[in-house]
Specification:
Chain lengths: 419, 227
């Protein structure tokens, strides 16, 4: 069978009904445009919201948890070994929160091919002393450059230069909420009492704003050295080792692996932040559902126009069959019409969808909570264009399937006799 | 010399089931030889068109056997029948069925394009030659719906000839034309038979035309009464 003939006939039938054909194509264009715009926008927002937490969270965090010893003296006793022992009111032991031999651990992690980077951290509890009020504070002692490289620290420093934390001793970047409460300006000094009772004066070199109010009220940042000095520890004192991986899906495995090797506790991002994944999955599910609904509706448009065309062109179908076109030839003709409408409409839809996304990206979107965001976020991932394109062809194929089935089973004798 | 049979019907019975079971064709047997011009006559409703649709392979719901070019075609798949129809049978209807979206030339070419044995250029040349036979070459580029009734009928005969079929079947090809056009079309048929030894089977009401054919098959009530 000469395929060009099928196309030629399909084209002739379409040009004969050009207006309806265009309407059907515009339907596809519209739904694909909406599909792309919707998914691009939704997933842009998703990425933004996820990024809010996920970008700043270590994929794996190693630390020593404070918990009761699993092996109580009674369990070690030979005498009660075979007994069922119940002990009440166990208290945690004074285990060290600092990670033993952390330099070796960091070196081992850095050598791992899955690991993008490692940043040590010290968490220090304390109070800011403002007049006669004490504000609770959590100070993170960080390796400034690593923290920035792995967790985009500088993005959230809204005033001052984050590198000052490293270069000037006893400096602090205050959480925006805490800074507002204390009315601390850049260059001011704030007094802090650590949980151990040490008093220190810290110079404010910047503000930190994450967009999550609770964090901004509580968290402030100092350098690793300053933190160690504040609590009177040596430079080998580190309470957390944060690891970022190339592929964060590997985090549970890596956490388990090293946790047992080093004998320390490990959290991975997937376990801790499972709810974020669920939220974004549901959001994209909704956008897919809306997009596909639109496509199905436009599919009905194509279904209608094809049915009408077949009804009007019964004579033509009868002649073609009398001349020697088989049922499947006739079916291909109408499937071709459907696919051409789907392809052209879909392609235009992808282009308009892209333009719509560019437009959305220009709309200003400024919010206190998101200092780095100036306009609406849009995800331009080619994935959605691929899905949109494939779906436009699939729906048009199915929309064309039944009408073309009908056309292929037209009995020419009935039509010719009917004249 | 024994004449070669182009088409042969053996004991064809045809029933219609709606509204009630009625037999439209009864034990119809006959054959048409190569180069023969045969006409079929009979009262309205005696089953001429029904017979022709069966012979053209478009209607497959019948009893009996049908041979085309000495090949049994009863019971063949519809794909196979389509191909046979395309290659070996030319059909001319009472109402000039042309495809209005295409030009006259394209309409004539379509059976050739479908057969797909020759290049487009060759087919265009052949189609123009066919149109010349009917003095329609000047209208080749017109759209099919810009022609008069007689012209359309000539084009549809040209189309039936496109693949040089074994046989041309026509159902009252002049039924819708005035005397002048009807004579013209019949003249062309005659010429095709005489000059190109084209085999023809024509259903007609017109006694005068039937008399000018080689042989007339007369039907009555679904039966052949004289062949
Ligand atoms: N689809 C059908 N269902 C039932 N009966 C039919 C059907 N088609 C035709 N008939 C009947 O079959 C008989 C033969 O019809 P046919 O069209 O073959 O007649 P004809 O000889 O061609 O008549 P005319 O000269 O008027 O064209 C008629 O009695 C007609 O009513
Ligand atoms: Mg008839």
């Amino acid at each position: 069978m000469r395929f060009s003939l099928i196309i030629e006939i399909a084209r002739a039938l379409m040009t004969a009904r050009i207006k309806q054909t265009l309407v059907a194509a515009v339907g596809v264009t519209f739904s694909i445009t909406m599909f792309i715009a919707l998914l691009g926008f939704m997933n842009g927002l998703n990425d933004l919201l996820d990024g809010l937490i996920l970008n700043r969270t270590a994929h794996v965090r190693f630390y020593n948890d404070i918990k009761p010893n699993e092996q109580q003296p009674l369990d070690l006793s030979e005498e009660f070994k075979d007994w069922f022992n119940v002990i009440r009111s166990i208290k945690p032991t004074v285990s060290r929160v600092s990670i033993y031999n952390n330099e070796a651990i960091i070196r081992t992690l850095q050598a791992d091919k899955r690991v993008l980077g490692v940043a040590p951290k010290i968490a220090v509890q304390g109070f800011f002393n403002v007049g006669n009020v004490d504000l609770p504070a959590v100070l993170n002692g960080i390796a400034v450059e690593e923290e920035d490289r792995l967790f985009a620290f500088s993005d959230y420093v809204v005033a001052g230069d984050f590198m000052d934390l490293k270069y000037s001793a006893n400096s602090i970047i205050l959480g925006k909420g805490a800074a507002d409460k204390m009315m601390a300006d850049l260059g001011d000094y704030v007094q802090l009492t650590t949980a151990q009772g040490n008093r220190v004066l810290l110079k404010v070199v910047g503000y930190y704003q994450s967009g999550i109010g609770e964090l901004d009220n509580l968290q402030s940042y100092v350098s690793l050295n300053t933190a160690q000095k504040m609590i009177g520890e040596t430079s080998s004192y580190v309470t957390d080792i944060q690891v970022k991986l190339y592929d964060f899906n590997l985090s549970p495995g890596l956490a388990r692996e090293y946790s047992s090797i080093f004998g320390i506790d490990a959290d991975d991002i997937q376990t801790v932040n499972a709810q974020f994944e669920t939220g974004s999955q549901i959001r994209s599910l909704i956008s897919y559902a809306v997009g596909i609904t639109l496509l199905v509706v436009s599919g009905f448009g194509i279904y209608n126009i094809l049915n009408m065309m077949i009804y009007e062109k019964m004579d033509t179908i009868a002649i073609l069959k009398a001349i020697g076109f088989s049922g499947s030839d006739v079916r291909y003709i109408f499937i071709t019409i459907a696919l051409v409408i789907g392809f052209v409409g879909g392609l235009l839809g992808l282009i308009f969808g892209f333009i719509a996304c560019l437009g959305i990206e220009q709309i200003p979107f400024e919010t206190e909570a998101l200092p780095t965001i100036k306009t609406f976020p849009v995800d331009f991932s080619p994935k959605y264009y691929l899905i949109g394109g494939v779906f436009s062809l699939i729906t048009t194929y199915f929309a064309g399937f039944f009408p073309s089935q009908k056309a292929s089973s037209v009995d020419p004798v009935e039509i010719i006799r009917g004249k | 010399m024994e004449k070669k049979k182009v088409i042969e019907a053996q004991k064809i019975n045809k029933f219609f089931f709606s509204p009630t079971k009625t037999q439209v064709l009864r034990e119809v047997s006959f054959s048409v030889n190569k180069g023969e011009f045969v006409s079929v006559m009979g009262k309205s409703g005696c089953g001429k068109s029904t017979l022709l649709y069966i012979l053209s392979t478009m209607d497959t719901d019948y009893e009996g056997k049908l041979f085309l070019d000495d090949q049994l075609i009863t019971g063949q798949s519809s794909e196979k029948l389509s191909r046979l129809r395309n290659e070996k049978i030319g059909f001319v209807f009472q109402f000039h069925y042309l495809i209005h979206e295409f030009s006259v030339l394209e309409n004539v070419m379509i059976p050739g394009l479908k057969l797909n044995r020759k290049s487009r250029e060759e087919l265009e040349y052949i189609a123009l030659e066919k149109l010349k036979v009917f003095e329609m070459q000047d209208h080749a580029l017109k759209k099919a719906n810009q022609l008069s009734g007689g012209q359309k009928q000539r084009v549809s005969i040209a189309r039936a000839l496109m693949n040089d079929p074994l046989i041309i079947m026509s159902d009252e090809p002049t039924g819708n034309l005035d005397k002048k056009n009807s004579d013209l079309v019949f003249g062309i048929f005659r010429e095709l038979v005489v000059e190109f030894q084209q085999t023809m089977l024509m259903v007609t009401h017109d006694l005068e035309l039937a008399a000018k054919t080689d042989r007339t098959i007369e039907m009555e009530d679904g039966r052949i009464i004289s062949a």
